[in-house]
Amino acid sequence: MxxxxxxxxxxxxDQFIGLLESSTLGERRPIHDRECMEGVVSNSNLLISAWxxxxxxxxxxxxxxxxxxxxxxxxxxxxxxxxxxxxxxLQSLTQEQLGPLCxxxxxxAPAANSYYGQIGYTHNDRCWVLDPGATIGN
Length: 138
Ligand SMILES: CC(C)(COP(=O)(O)OP(=O)(O)OC[C@H]1O[C@@H](n2cnc3c(N)ncnc32)[C@H](O)[C@@H]1OP(=O)(O)O)[C@@H](O)C(=O)NCCC(=O)NCCS
What we know:
globular; 4 helices; binds coenzyme A; 138 residues; five-stranded mixed β-sheet; Aminopeptidase; alpha+beta
């Protein structure tokens, strides 16, 4: 399989949604909210993509300051291409764009929860999420 990898190569919202669907990650993302999907694609600042010729087969989409924290928001590989090293390569290439002190941070999908420990991530039980609409109180 001859897969090419690109750094910050533009993709369309439809290509992004198509990959979410073909990877199964679409089940966990608001793919029917067009405004949200367009905002997601146009406001990422680190995008590594994997291509089989003109077909987008993998993506690592992050939001980062490049020096301290990189939030890897979407990691997805097309079902027909999974478990052949593309996910790992997308993450290595993401890491290569970051400074030496920069951490990669993500929230695992339930089906991929054991994946990250196997490839070198450490689990952090002090990670917290404020859901949309939740009120800050005391
Ligand atoms: C999870 C995902 C990104 C991994 O990418 P990938 O290209 O399939 O994975 P890789 O080929 O880099 O896998 C490396 C290793 O992890 C293992 N692995 C892959 N997916 C796994 C999973 N879901 N759970 C546990 N281990 C997994 C592989 O077997 C492989 O092990 P090996 O090197 O001993 O053979 C991909 O399977 C995917 O898109 N899944 C559906 C969407 C999803 O859950 N995304 C993650 C959101 S947090």
